[in-house]
TrEMBL record, chain A:
Pfam families: UQ_con (PF00179)
Domain UBC core: 4-154
UniProt name for this protein: E2 ubiquitin-conjugating enzyme
Residue ranges of the region described as Disordered: 1-21
Top-level taxon of the source organism: Eukaryota
Keywords: ATP-binding, Nucleotide-binding, Transferase, Ubl conjugation pathway
PANTHER family (UniProt xref): UBIQUITIN-CONJUGATING ENZYME E2
Enzyme Commission number(s): 2.3.2.23
InterPro entries: Ub_conjugating_enzyme (IPR050113), UBC (IPR000608), UBQ-conjugating_enzyme/RWD (IPR016135)
Enzyme class: transferase
One Gene Ontology MF term: ATP binding
UniProtKB/TrEMBL annotation, chain B:
Keywords: Metal-binding, Repeat, Transferase, Ubl conjugation pathway, Zinc, Zinc-finger
Family matches, as Pfam families: Ariadne (PF19422), IBR (PF01485), IBR_1 (PF22191), UBA_ARI1 (PF21235)
Keyword Transferase: yes
Acidic residues bias (residue ranges): 1-30
Domain RING-type: 124-338, 128-174
Organism: Terfezia boudieri ATCC MYA-4762
Annotated InterPro entries: Ariadne (IPR045840), ARIH1-like_UBL (IPR048962), E3_UB_ligase_RBR (IPR031127), IBR_dom (IPR002867), TRIAD_supradom (IPR044066), Znf_RING (IPR001841), Znf_RING/FYVE/PHD (IPR013083), Znf_RING_CS (IPR017907)
Region entry Disordered, spans: 1-32
EC number: 2.3.2.31
Record protein name field: RBR-type E3 ubiquitin transferase
GO terms assigned for molecular function: ubiquitin protein ligase activity; zinc ion binding
Species lineage: Eukaryota, Fungi, Dikarya, Ascomycota, Pezizomycotina
């Protein structure tokens, strides 16, 4: 990793601390490694995911910002854009290498993730079954979402 | 062959790849010199084509870009972007550009503010948005959109796009949401030579990919492209086999290995059918490896279908398992599927069984030629080794044993053709011309089996078989030409009826 990369991450971190986005907390796991972040998302009111607290890992590649970060849900979530496995990975929009531009920022990634809690992107789903259910059986979809939030995403 | 033809032949061999005057646009170009066999006229199954090297393709692009640049009065880097955007349709580009300049430039990812020349600059009070460097005297660069970044970041960005992601003509400004394209001038200015060289190679590829009349040779590591005017609409009437300078024979229509006489559409359907039905087919081929008389297990070690059981000496045909004695004569009928007369059309089960049998008849012959081609080749390679030995023993020179090499090549080619005649026949509807096709197929098949059989003779005999083998090779080749010519004419004149739609 280059000095430019570190300088850039440090600057983004400062900006995030000065102007924290709503419903998001994000900071590196430790001061010695700025490439691994803990992220917590809470859904806005009106979202199906409202009431849940979701933890994620944000990993910056050593080539950052020339390559996109990766984002993984560590809290289980029933969502068309999050892989339904132990990785909880997301792969859409600017998170894809071909769509990422070096001028994109971590903030944009976090805002995109939170935006997906308000409205899933069914056209770019990893879990096509969940996307189909979202489109055709909204009630069933909502039921599972709520159930999963109750089981996995409630902060005591 | 006239002197003229001879000269052009020489030209081709000696310098075609360094040729300076490109003939990309020359429609009337006569390609007789590409024929493998010295025939005065193009056969009905042959198509005109040319093979181009990497550097020739680059040159052709440069010339067209230069021409447009002169007409539009734009710098050539920008014309290159425009031409790519318009998929090299020069006339369309010029017409639309003259109509609405700004729209065309914008749509192609070029800014309308073309006056400013791109250069590396130092800008007072600048901070790079990518690396956050704000040192004094930092070298910076921006495309016409004015999104400015430091040169170091730009270089890393380009290197990653080109070397890692294989991008070329569609690389955008590093700014989020900006679709201004990076042109070749910017690449030259910013990227190290290895990267800009790679960029050129990749751009070259997009040129071939963008043009309907060009196709890369699909052989691994081959860098030639073939130019052929046969379009997708013609593929129902012609099977455009082309031969690359690397020796690979392939279909210009679909890129697969040469599949004459079978049209691309039938090839596609056939391959799909074989994949779907492979289980049945495997079962059948796995169950036909015993001598039909004594049931001893028979192992096939050459391409020849004339089998002799080691145990009981029974001679039979590997494909139909019938006695060979019925095959060597004029009533050889291994290729034709005899529609069973007794099948009751109302009996659905009998019908579907008959249709499976029919498919397997053709599939077995198809698969067998494929397999035989491999075995023939293996046998040839073994033989070649032995021939080297023989050479030193008998005093024959390398040139003198080349007849084996050409016999092997012709065998490979004919088996390839035969293989596809069975897919062709499978979809062929019976009419009064079918028997001509089947006769041609049978003649070629018999000739191939005879030649293949000679290959299996002990090496010591091969030297004395030289004349016979050369004769047979020529004969086999001739049978192939007759079959291909006849089927191609039928396609062109729409004389074949197929059970499926070719479109
Ligand atoms: Zn920079
Ligand atoms: Zn820009
Ligand atoms: Zn080739
Ligand atoms: Zn084809
Ligand atoms: Zn036997
Ligand atoms: Zn037979």
């Amino acid at each position: 990793m280059s000095s430019g990369s570190l300088r850039r991450i440090t600057k983004e971190l400062t900006e995030l601390n000065e102007n924290p986005p709503s419903g998001v907390t994000a900071c590196p796991i430790s001061d010695s490694d700025l490439y691994k972040w803990n992220v917590t998302l809470t859904a806005p009111k009106g979202s199906l995911y409202y009431g849940g607290v979701f933890h994620l890992n944000l990993t910056l590649p050593s080539e950052y910002p020339f390559k996109p970060p990766t984002l993984n849900f560590t809290t289980k979530i029933y969502h068309p854009n999050v892989s339904n496995d132990d990785k909880g990975s997301m792969c859409l929009g600017i998170l894809r290498a071909e769509n990422w531009k070096p001028s994109c920022k971590i903030l944009a990634v976090l805002e995109m993730a939170r935006g997906l809690l308000l409205e899933p992107n069914v056209d770019d789903a990893v879990e096509t079954n969940i996307a189909d259910q979202y489109k055709n059986d909204r009630a069933g979809f909502e039921k599972t979402v709520k159930q999963w939030i109750k089981n996995h995403a409630k902060e005591k | 062959m006239s002197d003229d033809d001879f000269m052009s032949d020489e030209d081709f061999n000696d310098e075609s790849l360094e040729e300076t005057d490109s003939e990309f646009e020359d429609e009337t170009y006569d390609d007789d010199r590409y024929l493998k066999y010295d025939k005065p006229q193009r056969k009905s199954y042959e198509v005109e084509f040319r093979v181009y090297s990497d550097s020739q393709i680059q040159k052709a692009q440069a010339e067209q870009i230069e021409e447009v640049s002169n007409i539009l009065g734009l710098p050539s880097e920008q014309c290159a972007v425009l031409m790519r955007h318009f998929k090299w349709q020069k006339e369309r580009l010029i017409e639309q550009y003259l109509n609405s300049q700004e729209e065309v430039l914008g749509a192609a990812g070029l800014d309308t503010n073309a006056a400013r020349t791109l250069k590396i600059e130092k800008v007072k009070g600048f901070m790079c948005d990518i690396c956050c460097n704000d040192e004094n005297g930092l070298e910076t660069f921006a495309l016409r959109c004015d999104h400015r970044y430091c040169v170091e970041c730009y270089t890393v960005y380009l290197e990653q796009k080109i070397k890692e992601e294989g991008e070329s003509g569609r690389i955008q400004c590093p700014c989020e949401g900006c679709s201004t394209l990076v042109d070749s001038k910017a690449i030259k200015l910013l990227a190290p030579k290895s990267v800009s060289d790679r960029y050129q190679v990749l751009l070259n590829r997009t040129y071939v990919d963008d043009k309907d009349n060009l196709r890369w040779c699909p052989a691994p590591n081959c860098e030639y492209a073939v130019d052929c005017a046969i379009g997708p609409k013609q593929l129902t009437t012609i099977v455009p086999t082309v031969v690359c300078s690397c020796g690979h024979h392939f279909c210009f229509g679909c890129g697969l290995n040469d599949h004459q006489p079978c049209p691309c559409a039938l090839v596609k359907k056939w391959i799909k059918k074989c994949e779907d039905d492979s289980e049945t087919a495997n079962w059948i081929s796995a169950n036909t490896k015993e001598c039909p008389k004594c049931l001893a297990t028979i192992e096939k070690n050459g391409g020849c279908n004339h089998m002799t059981c080691r145990k009981c000496k029974h001679e039979f045909c590997w494909v139909c398992m019938g006695p060979w004695s019925e095959h060597g004569t004029s009533w050889y009928n291994c290729n034709r599927f005899e529609e069973k007369a007794g099948v009751d059309a109302r009996d659905h089960q009998a019908k579907s069984r008959a249709s499976l049998e029919r498919y397997l008849h053709y599939y077995n012959r198809y698969a067998n030629h494929e397999q035989s081609a491999k075995l023939d080749k293996d046998l040839y390679l073994k033989t070649e080794k032995k021939m080297t030995l023989l050479q030193s023993q008998s005093g024959m020179s390398w040139i003198e044993v080349q007849y084996l090499d050409s016999a092997s090549k012709v065998l490979q080619q004919c088996r390839q053709t035969l293989k596809w005649t069975y897919a062709f026949a499978f979809y062929l509807e019976r009419n009064n011309l079918t028997h001509i096709f089947e006769d041609n197929q049978k003649d070629l098949e018999m000739a191939v089996e005879t030649l293949s059989e000679l290959f299996e003779r002990p090496v010591e005999q091969l030297a004395s078989l030289k004349v016979e083998m050369m004769d047979k090779t020529a004969y086999v080749n001739n049978r192939r030409i007759i079959l291909l010519d006849d089927t191609a004419k039928g396609l062109l004149e729409d004389k074949w009826n197929f059970t499926v739609d070719l479109n």
